[in-house]
Design goal:
Elements lengths: L1 H18 L27 H4 L17 H5 L12 H13 L3 H13 L4 H10 L7 H14 L3 H16 L8
């Protein structure tokens, strides 16, 4: 069983390493909408090793509690295998501190998306497909994101999509 735990730990570490590769592997962005200075910096990377105790599951369990044995004994719910908004924000802070503002914003946007139920998220995604929504449909989703889920970044994307689809004649009824 310990070999499997080691394998899971190794996979988690590799995924974290890939998400925070050095800035030289990607172009830097100058997106001015990116939040300034987060709590975590480049020195805090990799978070899994340097802040292991701060990373929790959605129900508040420590990473050490997530073992294959605990999963097989139903002590860990499948929802506890999801990343938390806090962990995504931590990753975003590290990316931003390394000058990777686009990656930082992607982590922050992903953190917002974790608050939205999967079925609703899929409906929102489908609403973004060309000719599927009216401008008002997209603006209503933006309002829902902002007010119900406190997802301001994602709300802005829907507002931008509404304007873009209108200018490109991609709204429902434009065909």
């Amino acid at each position: 069983m310990s070999d499997l735990n080691d394998l899971v730990s190794s996979i988690v570490k590799q995924m974290g390493d890939q998400a925070g590769q050095p800035a030289s592997s990607n172009a830097h962005s100058t997106n001015s909408a990116a939040p300034k200075g987060g709590k975590y910096g480049v020195k805090d990377y990799p978070l899994y090793e340097k802040h292991h105790d701060e990373i929790k599951t959605p129900s508040g369990k420590s990473l050490d509690d997530v073992t294959l044995e605990a999963i097989s004994n139903n002590q860990i719910d499948r929802k506890d295998l999801r990343i938390t908004p806090e962990a995504l924000k931590m990753q975003g802070d590290v990316a931003g501190a390394d000058g990777r503002k686009t990656l930082q914003m992607n982590f922050y946007r992903a953190a917002e998306l974790t608050r939205i139920p999967d079925d609703r998220l899929l409906e929102m995604y489908n609403a973004l497909r060309p000719y599927r929504s009216t401008k008002q449909d997209l603006l209503d989703i933006a309002d829902e994101l902002r007010t119900k889920y406190d997802a301001k970044i994602c709300a802005g994307w829907f507002e931008e999509a509404a304007k873009y689809y209108e200018s490109r004649k991609k709204l429902k009824g434009d065909k």
